[in-house]
Amino acid sequence: MSGIYVTALYVMSGVCAFAALHHGLAVLRRRVNRIHLLFALLALAIMGLVLARAGAYQAQTAEALVAMRKWEVAAVCVFFSLFPWFIAEYTGIRPRKLLLGLTAFFVLMFALNLIQPYGLQFTGLPQLTYLELPWGERVVDLRVLHPPLLHTIGWGGILVALVFSLYACIAQYRQGQQQKASALAWALGLFFVAVMFNLVINRLNIEFIHTSDFGFIVLLVLMDLEMMLESRDQNRHMRAVLDHLSAAICLKDSKGRYQLVNHTFETFFHTREADIVGKNVFDPFPRQQDELIRAQERQVLNTRQNVESEEVLECDGQPRIFQSIKFPLLRPDGCVYAVGGVYVDITESRKQDETLDKFRRQLWHADRVASTGAITASLAHELCQPLSAILNNAQAGLRFMAQDKVDLDEIREIFQDIVRDDKRAATVINGLRAMLQQEIPYADLDLAQCVNEVIKLLHSEIIRHGVEVECMLDASLTVRANKTQIQQVVLNLMINALEAMAEQPAGERKLRVRVTRADGKGRISISDSGIGIPEDMLDRVFDGFYTTKSQGLGVGLEVCRSIVESHCGVIWAEANPDRGVTFHFALPFAQEASATEGATGV
Fold this sequence. Notes:
Layout: H1 4-29, H2 34-57, H3 62-91, H4 96-115, E1 130-132, E2 138-140, H5 149-174, H6 178-204, H7 212-244, E3 248-253, E4 258-261, H8 263-269, H9 273-276, H10 287-303, E5 307-315, E6 318-330, E7 336-345, H11 347-374, H12 376-402, H13 408-436, E8 443-446, H14 447-457, H15 459-464, E9 468-473, E10 478-481, H16 483-500, E11 510-518, E12 521-527, H17 556-566, E13 570-575, E14 581-588, H18 590-600
Parallel strand pairs: 9-11
Antiparallel strand pairs: 1-2, 3-4, 3-7, 5-6, 6-7, 8-10, 11-12, 12-14, 13-14
């Protein structure tokens, strides 16, 4: 029958098993956490030590005593092969060579203990004697009076491990971690006292139980309490961080019940954590919004994928725009056990984007209006020609009708000329109106046709400047774009090219316009033979308010860049090998642009 003391040892082994289970589960929850893994293994080693000690106290034969003591030494070797690593992880003091040396030493002691027929506790088969404890319990006497040399060497290794632990504790204290160092110091101090008292009992042959068991248990309990307090501190710190975030955060279990909400969530949606966490309550949202959110959460549970969306939710009685993400929390086996949600209020950001977009469009519109000044002469010439022809045809018609015999075929031909010239004038006017329109939707656009229309619009201006135009337009390139804005870019670049060649001799003014396929995009290139741009300024010409013209404002090319980038394109300038400069801009083809619009919500 086991007495009080032996029963207490079994209870202590249960405490060790509980600690090992507790920290083992922590390892599983956190995937990888070495300090908890090491502590769980230490707890198992102490459990093995205590169970072996309890078995030794109850041994019925000398052979059983030797076997239990061998298991006891094996557990001690396992403990001290892991203990220095635990101290290193706990304190951050990691002398790698010393740690590896101690581990190798205790692994060697472990092997020698198993190889020796009587282990490291006995030189031969001991005589089984009993000890009467002060409270009347009778147990086997475990005092070792004549241990072998290896036993003493093993104590030397234990002493080195304890000295390293003390050094790490002092170093941690000096680093400013007084609380952790204090807990470790108390644990090591009590453990050292228990072990030293155990040595005194053995050396002086005092009739009493071994106390090293209690030293191991005290060390285990104190360090477990400290790690639990540290874990609670970490949770408290994490909660403080969550409460100070500007995003609303919540956590729900697989049944849709709230498990956690932060302070921002409470503030945004006028609820309290105590009122909804762990309770079967509806979300603090209107019914329609609540159904949408729950549908997204079910999608997360079913697909185990993040769900991102932009939602309009009630906040302080006003609709607010939130960017939300729902994400799954997975167990190690891959099962979803909870759904997290993050809501970021982007209302003000959306307002700023709208204001910026409005300003950008106003700037584009102002630039288009300003561009018309540069083509006034061309427009006047283009309009005067059809209007003059209409006037001449009308006067001729009146003269024919004043004759006695009217030639109806001649009158019909005059009217057809008037209709043709009227349509020609209308085309010029409609082209100008299109250039000045504020909003035109995106559509499939033939780049060659788009560029050709701008060239026709600038026809008289090109003649006035005495410029020779060379075109190479690939007619099979279609992009998804705003025609007005793309023509605005082409117009700006062509006007700049005409102005750049104004000082060149008449026969050397050449404008090359190309529409080609390059790098999987439609590219428009406009090259001039003008004065060019210095190499070190090519990267700056697209900056706002930077200009190489004496009377320029420096917004035209910046507007061009803004328009091209809004179409997911790129624009750049290159110096020509001989003279002048070439401006290129490239746009994605229609299918790619449509996919980009769908992804960005354009």
